[in-house]
Structure formats: C-alpha cells, structure tokens
Task: structure prediction
Amino acid sequence: MPQLSQTFVENALSLTVRGVSIFGVILLGACARPVPIDQINDPYETENRSMHAFNVGLDEKLVKPISGSIGGKGRGPLSLGLKHFVDNLDGPRDVLNNLLQLRIGRAAHNTLRFAVNSTIGIGGLFDPASAMGVEPKPTDFGETLYVWGVDEGHYLELPVLGPSTARDAFGKVVDYAINPVAILVKSPESYALTAAKLADSVVSRERHADIVDSVLHDSADSYAQARLLYLQNRRYDLGQKAADETAIDPYEDPYGQ
Result:
C-alpha cells in the first residue's frame, strides 16, 4: 500500500482545520437568501478547491489503491453482502426522518423493509425485501430540512466526505447524532459498525471506479465537474430539478460514511 508522505499529511491537517472553520458558517449559510435552483452558490470556491485537491490526493494515494485490490469489481457476494448490511443499518434513521417529514407511508415502508431484512435477511446481509417489492427509499436529515423549507445554502467540499451543501453538511451531523442504531449500539460493537461503513465506502469506490476516475482524475476541471454532478443529483433526488440521466454522483457513498 502506498505510504502518505509527511508533506501530504501536513497538508491534510491544514486543510481539515480550514474545513472545520468553513463548517462554522453552515447554519448561517442555510439561512441565506435562496438562489435560483439552476445556479450554483459557491462563495467559498477558493477554500473548496483546496479541500477538493486534498480529497483527490487522498483518493489517489490511499482509497483508489485499496479499492483496486478488491476482486469482482466490488460486486462479489461478500461485497454485496457488506453493502446490504451497511444500508440496513441506516433503516431506523430513514424511518425517523420520514416521521419528521410527516411522510407516514414512507415511514411504514422503511420500517417493513428494515424488519424483513433484519430477520429473513440475517441482519441485513441479504435483501429479501427488494425481492418482495419493498424497494429502498433512503432519506436523511438534509432532506428533512428541505421539507421544512430550509434553503440548500452555500456549496461546500468537506474533508474526506466530498461535495455537500450547508444544509446537507448540517444534516450529516444530525443524522449521526439521531441514528437509533448509533445510539443503541455501544463500544466495542460500535467500532465494528464504523469499520463496516468504512469498508463499504472503499468497496463502493471500486464498484464505481470508471465514473469516479473519469470525474476526479480525467476531467479538465474535476472540481467543477464533481460540484455540478453532486448538485444535479441532489436536487433531482429532492424533486427540485431534472438531472441528466447519465449524471452519477461520484461521492454516492462518501468516504468515511
């Protein structure tokens, strides 16, 4: 496995501190005057580009080499079992957000899905719920804020996690805090769940290797490309804007999630 140089680590620490300082404006950004949905609100582009350069370097030096050692292009039985397991862990969080959104039907749907996969699916390793027609309907607190009328705010590139917005970055923090699984499962078992999420992120990198490489390493301006794809897909998921059918978010499974 390639080793990170001392300079690279120092830059990582510096950029991470800068990212934390940017995060301090998230709540203010979420309350800023809304911009037209077909525009990009990126007042921190200089800082975001620095963070993006760090994330691309992290991918090139660490994540890509590790994911490339995975067989089956991330679609083997073990890889898919890991994906099902990790997705199932977020089931209670989805239900809670559905309730906060007053989407009772979706809450019932996700409750049924979690119950089926946690039992028949052996703790979520398999996905019999989908075979039964109970397809995944994931959500998050960022969507809850959208339902409540909070604007997406500034565009942000987060350390390790990649593209986001002020609203979605705050949503990630709240999702971590309110996830019933995270609250109920204590250490050392919680460490195993975190490791599973990290491993799934790496496997997902290999599963979408062609797309991620084309965006992060082959684009003339990977920052602008990643930003556009993220905003297109996020707005489409929220029902705000039709996205290009070929557009895929390269951070669909953000590193560290």
